[in-house]
Amino acid sequence: MGDAASLRTVRADALDFHEIAFGSDEYKQTCELRNEVLRLPLGLNLYSEDLQREKEQLHFGLFDHDTELIACVIAMLQGSGKAKLRQMVVKAGYEGRGVGRRLLLSLEEMLATRGVSQLSLHARISAAGFYEKLGYVCSGEPFVEVGIPHIRMEKQQQSLNKP
After folding, report:
1. β-pairing verdict for 137-145 and 148-156
2. Where are the domains of the chain?
3. Which residues, at least 6 apart from 117, have a Cβ–Cβ distance to it below 8 Å?
4. Right CATH number for 4-156 from 1.10.10.10, 3.55.40.20, 3.40.630.30, 3.30.1330.60?
5. Residue 14 — very low, low, confident or very high, per pLDDT cuts 50/70/90?
6. Could you tell me the pTM of the whole model?
7. CA 75, CA 80: separation in Å to the nearest integer?
């Protein structure tokens, strides 16, 4: 875990974005981070879920120069140029530093090169404003997922897939 000095000096544009292989050590780091930030505070445990279904999903992370995982997200390709984003998380202490923005924009660019033009996600209501600033729009009514209010959000983007 980063100390206070590294928290002050991290620059989102200096972080390394790349795809993570399911089952790798980096994947295990994403599970730890997702569990720590997204599940344990709700009294849930990621490891009680069936993680094998994630084998067919795409995993991405942002890493600092010491190869420490700072943020991660999962993309589920759904065919016909569609993808659903899930479990986006930024490590505690790195919020508000542009890390989430960098992760999402890097992911969108990567997915566009794979022909994805329609993105969707289930945002916690408390995070909806973040996604709206990046062009996502609310779709439908709020609902409860993992015990807290969420809203479906969508974004259209230009596919960069070459014919």
Report:
1. antiparallel
2. 4-156
3. 81, 82, 156, 157, 158, 159
4. 3.40.630.30
5. confident
6. 0.89
7. 14
Are 124 and 148 spatial neighbours (Cβ–Cβ below 8 Å)?
Answer: yes
| pLDDT tens readout for residues 55-67 | 999 999 999 887 8
The tokens of 37 are what? Answer: 């930030």
Amino acid, res. 160: L
Q: Which pair of tokens denotes residue 62?
A: 């942002």
pLDDT in tens, 50-93: 999 999 999 999 998 878 999 999 999 998 999 999 999 999 99
151 vs 156: CA distance, rounded Å: 17
